[in-house]
Design goal:
The complex is a heterodimer of chains A (198) and B (393). By secondary structure, chain A is mainly alpha-helical. Helices cover 67% and strands 4% of the residues of chain A. Chain A has helices spanning 3-13, 17-39, 42-58, 69-95, 118-122, 126-136, 140-151, 156-163, 167-185, and strands at residues 99-102, 105-108. Helices cover 59% and strands 9% of the residues of chain B. Chain B is built from 17 helices and seven strands. Chain B has helices at residues 12-23, 29-41, 43-60, 71-84, 92-123, 125-130, 139-154, 156-174, 176-179, 189-197, 199-203, 222-232, 234-239, 267-276, 301-312, 328-350, 358-379; strands spanning 2-4, 7-9, 254-260, 284-285, 291-296, 317-324, 384-390. The longest helix of chain B has 32 residues, at 92-123. Chain B is flat, with a radius of gyration of 29 Å. The termini of chain B are far apart. Classes of the chains: A mainly alpha (198), B alpha+beta (393). At the A-B interface, helix 2, helix 3, helix 4, strand 2 and helix 6 of A face helix 1, helix 3, helix 4, strand 5 and helix 17 of B.
């Protein structure tokens, strides 16, 4: 952390919003993009990214600089994403394809799944859409490392620190995540150079 | 390990474990040499390497998206709120929306009461007459739901498509008393077809809870949705308003399950049709590949069935059981749950519990989820479940 950032950090710790905004400005896009690729849509990504910065601001006094500031921000972001995804997953177990019997009828509660979102419109590139859809269907664990490594370009070491996992675990997890993505995308042969497709 | 010519060779499985690390340039030089030697001599592993490289390239090509335009502005507002109120208020937008909602609520309620009279006369004279007996049905009740029609009337081009749903709605509002006698209404396929021609009369026996009925709503803004929540459950909304209000939810109120008996039929045509008729982002597969589940606006249902008949043949599309659901009980359960959570949170906060406290965080998460459930129930209260079957030829 450079001197300038240190000053901003101190001010932010004293509740200075402007200093905080300057301090985190450089992280905003990346935090948003991590959330976007984890959650799969713009609305959620925006909300989660904002929530992440609010949490950072609220707990900045307790930031001890044991980890770097960036690691800390990304850890908070990924934790919020994972929490939210788990919450939804739990909810989905109840809702997907399962008829809920009410006293006087029956409904399939798939409302959320049918919600068209602006991100769908925004995805202009068909291949990009196929790949992002495939990423969205990965497990959270795999999605996280894949987004961090292959989309956001974090190093193994950074990912290990952010996720608080040993580097060895991160390495094998990234490998498995890529394998899993490959399996999903295998059916889309146009995505691969044909000679490599079995 | 495989021993070959006195040298220790790594197995394909071991090599495959290393592929990603190799791609990322993180193998140490000894392993890298071994890896490259293996790759040169093993087609399988080489193909695997190339495929994974392709995967990495594909992911890399996704790139970054820009921040939403109002991101910084919104964050600024929230930060000010957090810093200015000692972390008590976390979402300025929610609070502002709530204030706004109160005004909109009053305004729209008045407008809706006026509008309902005009609409009944202009648009559904027959319906109004046929249900004259219970005309005295609470206007206040109607107001909340009929304000959605205000938006509708603005969308002139969409009006026609939604007429049948709208008239159906009026039918049900005015017939609540009668409907209470029959909890579930079951329409046979034949009845359902008749509904195409006689939406108003067919609608009569369907029970729906008038204040929450919101069908065929072309446009709906956030404030509007929040307002509905406030209108139905003021206790909850004053504590916590729904953050995420997906206007489009309201439209998807006919849950359709289509079973296709003959796998040889072109199911893609069915999917395309469903999308054309507003099935939203996607059509889900049910338990099999020939069992589709999706939602379309209720007003589009009859036309959708007609379109399917033109594709698959008149006699091969069978409309099954149509159910409507009264969600009052579910709503009550969710409201109770929300009240309990609110009380617990209030107690903890009054005791000066830190916002980071695990229990408090969990309770708030639960509350948010309860609020979401409730909001969905309120918004999509008119569910109609229909089974369609496409017979094998």
């Amino acid at each position: 952390m450079c001197e300038n950032e240190r000053i901003l950090l101190e001010k932010a710790k004293n509740g200075d919003v402007q200093a905080f905004e300057l301090l985190v400005e450089g992280y905003q896009k990346k935090v948003f993009n991590v959330a976007l690729r984890m959650m799969g849509n713009y609305d959620d990504a925006g909300e989660i990214a904002q929530e992440a910065f609010i949490r950072v601001f609220k707990s900045i006094k307790s930031f001890k600089e044991e980890s770097t500031f960036s690691t800390w921000i990304y850890r908070i972001t990924t934790n919020i994403c994972l929490d939210e995804l788990r919450k939804r997953k739990n909810k989905k177990i109840i809702s997907i394809d399962e008829d809920i019997r009410f006293e006087d009828g029956e409904a399939k509660r798939q409302i959320e799944d049918f919600k068209p979102t602006p991100d769908v419109i925004a995805e202009k590139n068909e291949i990009k859409k196929i790949v992002t859809d495939a990423i969205n269907s990965l497990s959270e664990e795999h999605r996280l490392v894949l987004v961090m490594r292959d989309i956001q370009g974090f190093s193994y070491e950074e990912i290990a620190k952010i996720t608080k996992c040993p580097e060895g675990t991160v390495k094998s997890r990234i490998n498995r995540a890529r394998q899993a993505l490959k399996e999903i995308l295998k059916n889309n042969k146009e995505l691969f150079n044909n000679e490599y497709v079995k | 390990m495989i021993w070959k010519g006195g040298l220790e060779m790594k197995s394909c499985n071991e090599i495959k474990e290393m592929i990603s690390i190799y791609i990322d340039g993180e193998l140490d030089s000894k392993l890298q040499n071994e890896f490259e030697t293996h790759i040169q001599n093993c087609d399988d592993c080489r193909i695997e390497l190339e495929e994974l490289k392709e995967i990495v390239n594909l992911c890399g090509s996704i790139g970054e998206e820009e921040l939403p335009e109002d991101f910084k502005q919104q964050l600024h507002g929230k930060l000010l709120a957090v810093s200015g109120t000692d972390n008590q208020i976390t979402n300025v937008k929610e609070i502002n929306r709530f204030k706004l909602n109160r005004y909109i609520k009053i305004g729209t309620s008045i407008a809706a009461v006026l509008l309902i009279a005009v609409l009944v006369k202009v648009l559904f004279p027959l319906t109004a007459v046929s249900h004259k007996s219970s005309e005295s049905s609470s206007l206040a009740e109607s107001a909340v739901s009929s304000k959605t029609l205000a938006a509708e009337s603005k969308a002139d081009n969409k009006m026609t498509a939604y007429d049948s749903a709208a008239s159906d709605q009026f039918g049900t509002i005015t017939n609540k008393e009668n409907a209470d006698l029959a909890d579930t209404t079951t329409l046979t396929g034949k009845d359902s077809l008749r509904k195409v021609e006689e939406p108003a009369t067919e609608a009569a026996p369907i029970e729906r809870s008038a204040p929450k009925t919101k069908m065929a709503e072309p446009e709906k803004n956030e404030a509007d949705t929040g307002n509905t929540t406030a209108g139905k459950a003021p206790d909850q909304s004053s504590k916590f308003t729904m953050k995420k209000t997906a206007a489009e939810n309201v439209k998807w109120n006919t849950v359709i399950t289509v079973k296709v008996e003959d796998p040889g039929l072109e199911i893609d045509k069915l999917k395309t049709k469903a999308l054309e008729f507003g099935a939203g982002r996607e059509v889900k597969n049910g338990s099999t590949n020939y069992d589709l589940i999706f939602m379309i606006p209720f007003a589009q249902y009859d036309q959708f069935v007609a379109a399917l008949k033109s594709i698959y043949g008149n006699g091969f599309v069978v409309t099954g059981v149509t159910n409507t659901i009264n969600m009052d009980k579910q709503i009550k359960i969710n409201q109770d749950r929300l009240n309990i959570l609110n009380n617990k949170i209030d107690t903890l906060e009054a005791a000066g519990t830190s916002p980071e406290d695990k229990e408090l965080v969990k309770l708030k998460a639960d509350r948010e989820s309860a609020q979401k459930d409730l909001d969905y129930l309120m918004k999509d209260i008119t569910y109609i479940s229909v089974d369609l079957k496409i017979l094998a030829k």
